[in-house]
Fold this protein.
Amino acid sequence: MNSVKFLYAAYIATWLIHGLYLGSLVRRYRRLRERMKDLGK
Amino acid sequence: MKKAFPILAVLTGILLAYAFYQAMWVAPTDALQGDVYRIIYYHVPSAWTAFLLFFINFIASVQYLASATRSSQRAAKWIVIVIGIIGAVAPFIPQVGQQLPAGLYPSSVATTVLAIPAFYFLIGKYFPEQNLDVLAVTTAEVGVVFCTIVLITGPIWARPVWGIWWAPGDIRLTSTLVLWLIYVSYLVLRRFSDSAQTQKLAAVLAVFGALDVPLVYFSIWFFRTQHPQPVIGGGGSMDPRMLNVLLINWMAFLCFAFLICWSRFALEKMRREVEEAEALESLAEGGELAAQPSSAKIPLSRGTR
């Protein structure tokens, strides 16, 4: 069965979703840091 | 604790790499499906991790609701103890044991039910009242991420094996989709509701949402479904080498989920602190403005969110 491309697709999709979520966490963290800086001023 | 995070992150990275190596090159190829079956090493651990996170979300939500009054706290504690005792004893009563589907052992049912009081008291011990809601939102969000992976890798696996992306009406697939939708609605409620009751409403929704988890898990035992039988118990006959690799991958994803939850928990606490500080600042600015003559007043530009 020539279906290895589906295996790669599933693995890539998994890490893509984790990567996107981690990216969103970093973005939210940076935004909070900026708000904290604004508060400190 | 902060020093432990980078060490744990490195160890988790190594474990994930090792689990990937095992999944791709060490686990034997399936005689029927070929190499595509290796999707199981990401699909199943992601599902188990999502279930565990939703279970923790359920316990934290119950704890949060119970913490409203002392009497409700005491009542919840006793209900959980009774559930634990009944769950540990009932599966071994012959009349009850006969009702269990083939392959579902009384010991595994008892262990699963005993997890309810175990997690209830552990979470109650290590998470003070104000952190219960933070834990609930953290586990729901990370659980949705893992559940999304299940819903995406499942159809990718189904296409070459079943010939279709999705089996409409299949109870395992539909109940998993419903589970995902419930927790997405939970997160949407938390994101867009400004009501003071949001946390309580979200906790109630989480309690009802968690009822779908056993339905998803046991659907393949009780209903005819396109989805394969469970790989552990339930008549599953997985090669021990494959099972070993599956458990290694689950361990790796559990460690990864723990790290993400740690980060998300810290982020949520930080967000609440910033919002509190901003609200206090707005109040202070309001107080200053009130002290000024009315002609000198300017509108507040910054909200509390």
Notes: The mean pLDDT of chain A is 91. Chain A touches chain B through 21 residues (CB under 8 Å).
